[in-house]
Amino acid sequence: MTVRALLAASAALVCGLPALAQPVAAADEERLTEIVVTAERRETKLQKTPISISVASAADLENRRVQSLADLADGAIPSLRIAPFFSRSSALTVGIRGIVPFDANQPSRDAAVGIYVDGVFLGRSQGLGAALLDIDRIEVLKGPQGTLFGRNAVGGAVNIVSKKPSGKFGLRALAGIRNYGGYSGEMHLDLPEWHGLSAKIDAISTQRDGFIDNPLAGEEDFGRFERRGVRASVLWRPSDAVSALYAFDISYDATTPFALQLLSFSPTAPPNSPLVRPQPTRARQLLAGVPQQDSVGKTNGHLFTLDWKVADGIDFKSITSYREVDQTQFDNGFGIVAAVARPNANVVRYSLASLNQHQFSQEFQLLGTSDRFNWVAGLYYYREKGRDDAWAPNTMRWSADVQSLIRLSSLVEGQVTPFPDRASVARATSYAAFAQATYTPAILDERLHITAGGRYTHDKRSGVLFKVNGADSNIQFDRDWDRFDPMLTLAFDATDDVHLYGKYGTAYRAGGANSRSVNYRAFDPESVETFELGFKSEFFDNKARLNVAAFTTRYTDIQIDFNAQLVAGTTRTTIETVNAPGNGRIRGVEVDLNLAPVKGFTLSASYAYTKGTLPLAQNPFNNNNFQQPFIVFTPENAASFAADWVHDLGGASLRAHIDANIADGYRGLPGEPTLSDRSFLVNGRLALTDIDLGNGGRIEFALWTRNLFNRDQVYLRSNAAAAATGPYGIFNEPRQIGGDIQVRF
């Protein structure tokens, strides 16, 4: 059965509509449990929140072995698309509903999905691959979130919620091993409350060797990672009306890129070296070794949150944060797959880049509740400064007979331009005021709910490109924008278990300048407006849950990237970003189905249909001729299925989980129609849990796997080198298996 046929069959099971993944309740209960979210800046029930949301609970993350946002690249939440930036896992590309930036790797450019941790916006795509610490849930809000979450949430928002100190003693420790020389260790310590103070410490360390060998002696393999992090939090409750939380986190994330492989020879390709030949399946070892070292990301941050119950029905909240990111990106994955062998010619371009960014944000919220109104109003301030640089020296030389590669004695020997080839510094400041209110009139048995909101934002961004092609420069830009984003929702409780809604909302992504450009070309903001219809329902005595959302999005002034192969006289490529004239259009349907047919057994099915087209845009590298850009990393059809089973053994429990994630191929580069492979990935976990150790202790033994059937799938394919050699691609990770021992007190 083809992927498309399998997707169609699964959709037929869900009233003929596509389905989107939704986490299920605890499998040992007889009914689906209630899910609480904070999508409206207050705690609300998922089923009564008129937004298309997927929630991954702590149990879901454990079952799928998600230790980093990068692990959600398998499609566990079909509308959410996560991928490495090209071959680099040191920065993540994140998109929702077809709005996926190709390159948000620069300090003067923003992402299209807002990533939040405990209410704090993370400004850069670097650092997103860090290890997740003790996470309570991940909420994925689909569609523009311009009112409550602000700019750069044109596709939606990912809201990561950490577990707070409980005030009760608790200890959870985990030790695990995995193939490819990997291991994991975790410790989560919750301390008892003392004079209104509660504290919690979380620590994690995990690593894996590379899965594609680099034959150059002493150099790192491809696909390796080493992640570790610590988070300490203190919660103070001086009274029932006031609580204050301080948290500090620090992380280290070392990775090597995925390897590019030549997939086949082009019929027009000239004769080449025996070291340049196709490897059409995931290689165990590259044909030629290259210098390779870890890309290292270091992040740290401070968070202070104050909650104050001012009066009955009125609450005040303050979120203050300061964060830093320091990321190196050393990418030699390109190797020689696009290289025509020439005697004694330098080859193997090594991309050496770094970014340093720090940000400060302050948000004030005032929340109110009365018989007819629920409302929230707030002020927001954000400031960041970032600096990046890059250099791309060659590292190898062909032998005279092109039968072998010789390592250059130093990077200086292989350079074309001095270090750095390019460098920039950028600053951004943003001010916003927002408000949203829900009114329930005294008609229709109080089943109608009207929500209206808006956000005013003032953005200012400036920067200097002070190195271009290795030479000093002083190219500046300084721009500012004002924007108002409205939102209107009508919701109706058809019954106590069936809820209908219609929503209109807008959002925008700020403008900026591309530091990969040779002239620091500035570009304007892009914006979206979306109409969404949905219903949420529970039936069979809360043993089944079906949620459906259909949307249409108008996408305006889209920021389109165009790529030049090489800048004359250098070893680097350049990217120019332009705003496309006209409108794009993205349409889709999302459905979530959860079932708890019998005690101890739950099923979930998910599918997202996303179809979009972008307007023609002028390619500055092609005499400004109009060219068709493409939506990237977005399959037309994507689905996820999961089954969970719990069996009481008397003194212990047996828990089993399996999930399957399937998707059509998609385009990985904005300028190429070439499709990736269709994907089919299966993950599983089997655990013997709740074994009594006495004194309140329990132990658990678990086996897990990701990519159970070891599927080889090209997640990014390109024909850019077809004339020289042939199409190349980057493969997904191979099968991973591991075992864990976990102790809880």
What does this structure look like?
It contains 3 helices and 43 strands. The protein is 3% helix and 56% strand. The chain is globular. The chain has one domain (3-744): Maltoporin, Chain A (Beta Barrel). The strands form 9 sheets. The protein has a 22-stranded antiparallel beta barrel. With 745 residues, the chain is mostly beta strands. β35 and β36 form a beta hairpin.
The number of E-state strands comes to 43
- Coarse structural class: mainly beta
CATH superfamily: TonB-dependent receptor, beta-barrel domain
Identify the CATH class. Answer: Mainly Beta
CA(first)-CA(last) distance: 47 Å
Radius of gyration: 26 Å
Strand content: over 45%
What is the 3D shape? globular
Largest sheet: 22 strands, antiparallel, barrel
- Write down the overall mean pLDDT: 91
The CATH architecture designation is Beta Barrel
Describe the secondary-structure layout.
Layout: H1 3-13, E1 36-37, E2 44-45, E3 53-57, H2 58-63, E4 80-85, E5 88-96, E6 113-117, E7 120-121, E8 135-142, E9 156-162, E10 170-178, E11 182-194, E12 197-208, E13 225-239, E14 242-255, E15 260-262, E16 295-311, E17 314-331, E18 346-349, E19 351-369, E20 373-391, E21 394-398, E22 405-407, H3 411-414, E23 422-439, E24 448-468, E25 471-493, E26 498-509, E27 512-513, E28 522-523, E29 526-539, E30 544-556, E31 559-564, E32 574-579, E33 583-598, E34 601-613, E35 617-619, E36 625-627, E37 637-648, E38 653-663, E39 679-694, E40 697-706, E41 714-718, E42 728-731, E43 736-744
Parallel strand pairs: 6-9
Antiparallel strand pairs: 1-2, 3-8, 4-5, 6-7, 8-9, 10-11, 10-43, 11-12, 12-13, 13-14, 14-16, 15-42, 16-17, 17-19, 18-21, 19-20, 20-23, 21-22, 23-24, 24-25, 25-26, 26-29, 27-28, 29-30, 30-33, 31-32, 33-34, 34-37, 35-36, 37-38, 38-39, 39-40, 40-43, 41-42
